[in-house]
C-alpha cells in the first residue's frame, strides 16, 4: 500500500484541519496517510520511507511560515526526486505560500507534482472540505500512475 506523509505548519489550526482532510482523501483512495506537525520533522530521515509527500503552510504577510521554509531546506537534502508531491495552505487575503512550496517541490526537488497547489481560506467555507478531500484523492491517483 502506498504511503504519503502530510506535513503542516499552522498558527491557528486551520492548516492542520486542511491537512487532516487531504489525508482523508488519500485514505478514501486506499493509500496510507500520516499527518505530522512540522515541529516533529527534525532531520531529512523523517521524510524518508514515503511514496508521496504533501507540505502545507498558512500564508502570513505574503509568505509561508518560517518553520516551513526551514523544513524545505532540510527536505532538499532528503532525496525526494521523482516522488509524488502536493502543496496546500490556508490564507486570509493573499495565499502565496502553497504556490511557493509547490514550485520548490517541483523545480528544486524535482518531484512528480499533482496539477496545482490547494489554496483554501477555510476548510469549512465554500466546499472546502470536499476540495481538500478531492486533493487527497488526486495525490493518491498520481501514486497509481
From TrEMBL:
InterPro entries tied to this protein: Flavodoxin/NO_synth, Flavodoxin_CS, Flavoprotein-like_sf
Cofactor: FMN
SUPFAM superfamilies hit by this protein: Flavoproteins
Domain of life, source organism: Bacteria
UniProt GO MF annotations: electron transfer activity; FMN binding
Domain Flavodoxin-like: 4-140
Name of the protein described by the UniProt record: Flavodoxin domain-containing protein
Amino acid at each position: 500500500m502506498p504511503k504519503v506523509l502530510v506535513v503542516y505548519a499552522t498558527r491557528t489550526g486551520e492548516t492542520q484541519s486542511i491537512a487532516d482532510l487531504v489525508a482523508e482523501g488519500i485514505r478514501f483512495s486506499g493509500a496510507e496517510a500520516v499527518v505530522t506537525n512540522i515541529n516533529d520533522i527534525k532531520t531529512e530521515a523523517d521524510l524518508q520511507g514515503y511514496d508521496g509527500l504533501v507540505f502545507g503552510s498558512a500564508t502570513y504577510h505574503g509568505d509561508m511560515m518560517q518553520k516551513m521554509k526551514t523544513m524545505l531546506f532540510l527536505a532538499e537534502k532528503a532525496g525526494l526526486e521523482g516522488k509524488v508531491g502536493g502543496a496546500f495552505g490556508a490564507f486570509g487575503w493573499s495565499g502565496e505560500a502553497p504556490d511557493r512550496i509547490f514550485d520548490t517541490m517541483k523545480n528544486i526537488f524535482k518531484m512528480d507534482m499533482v496539477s496545482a497547489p490547494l489554496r483554501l481560506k477555510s476548510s469549512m467555507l465554500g466546499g472546502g472540505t470536499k476540495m481538500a478531500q478531492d486533493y487527497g484523492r488526486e495525490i493518491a491517483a498520481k501514486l497509481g500512475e
